[in-house]
Fold:
Amino acid sequence: MLDNPTNEGHNSALQAIQAPDGPPSDYAYEKRGILTAIIKQHNGTPTLFIDGKPVFASYMWGNAPTSEEYSMAATAQAYAEAGIHFHAFDAGAGGPECEWCGPAPDRESHFDFSHVEARLGRVLDVDPDARFHLRIHLEMHGQWWKDLYPDEREVDSNGQLHSQSFASLVWREQAKQFLREYIAHLQAIGLADRVIAYQTGTGNTGEWVKGQVSMTSRCGDYSQPMRRYFRDWLRACYDNDVAQLRAAWADPNVTFDTAEIPPASAQCQTTHGSFRNPRHEQAVIDYYRALADLCGDLVIDFNRTVKEATNGQALAGAFYGYLLELAWNASFFGSGSESEWSTTQRSGHLGLAKVLRSPYVDFIVSPYSYGFRGIGGHGPAMPPSEAMRIHGKLYLYEEDTRTHLAPTDAGFGNVESLPDAEAVLKRNLAEVLTRGQGIWWLGALSHIDPVREPTFAPLLAQFQRLGTFGLELDRRPSA
Structure:
């Protein structure tokens, strides 16, 4: 059982894995030797290289396959016929065949990799040239984890417990162990060469946003792990000098052992519009600075684990840095009536600067902005995309346009006709090509599905040709 931060006593699946003599007879995938995926400068912009050759980073993002079926087989085949062989889908915690699923009667480990080969094999049956981008979910929504580790859970300002605290060292060490064992299993079954990227994520959708305490009037995190982290952060910030802390907080009685997470009343107010006065609100400012540092450090730590476990031969990255977007909250998504508070500070995304400086982070992903998506609108990135370019990181543009195939009430700029859908998709590809970015198209939910809309098939093939052609152009920014 994983019952302590160091996982001592855990009968590690990593130690138990034995390399098989050959691939199971049920699967006919080809072992292609060691693959190396890296990001490096090419004609003026960060570019994906596979085994030393520049390639256009274009994917189909779809529903994850199961060991029994692949619901998107026909769509994946259509994408493959358009020349798109990179497949992005979810793995990790959550889902019917999750790999981080808790103990079971037949095993002590929290990890179960018995379905991995069959799941990936379903995609390879459809597209023998498939390469995988695994979106690894590390958020502990499962009740089993909450029951095992109640003291590691996030606590909101109403006293309600949620999933793991960002500051939980138990969870952090387990997550890194999961990444190591997952990669080791892929190596043992001969499929590590098929995985070009591991995207580590936590928060409600793997996007580093804790919706319960960042998108409503509730605040956090009042758990013991976060309290310990915040106090350690304060000691480092103020050189362990209590006089400095008291002067900054304008509190003659506070100490490093008594400093608390600011109450919701303080977190939800400002002195002037969006601005806080450090003479009176430094405690809140410090808490959000600490949260940003914590989340930035987690992104780096998880990505470093991936780079070490793969010997630097696969990419590592995250959904992150939505600095130009997070003014929204639950009300924007129709799941709340509280529109007074922004998600910007409370999301954990403000650690972007240190993430961009890290050598362990290869790429950043986001959907494109939810505002002004439709006809006549624009398709910009949520993060400051040029900052990623000058730091040598590849930006992957999530193309999740609600086309005419989506429900008419899908929102977020959904379009009503095929010509409008084509126009928006072309507009967004132009954004990607002119900024030297990568892209994945939402094959899931039928939004950009060549099976349901045959016109999309030649359009995607054209996009793939343009992206490949663009690799040979001078792509230095003109600014």
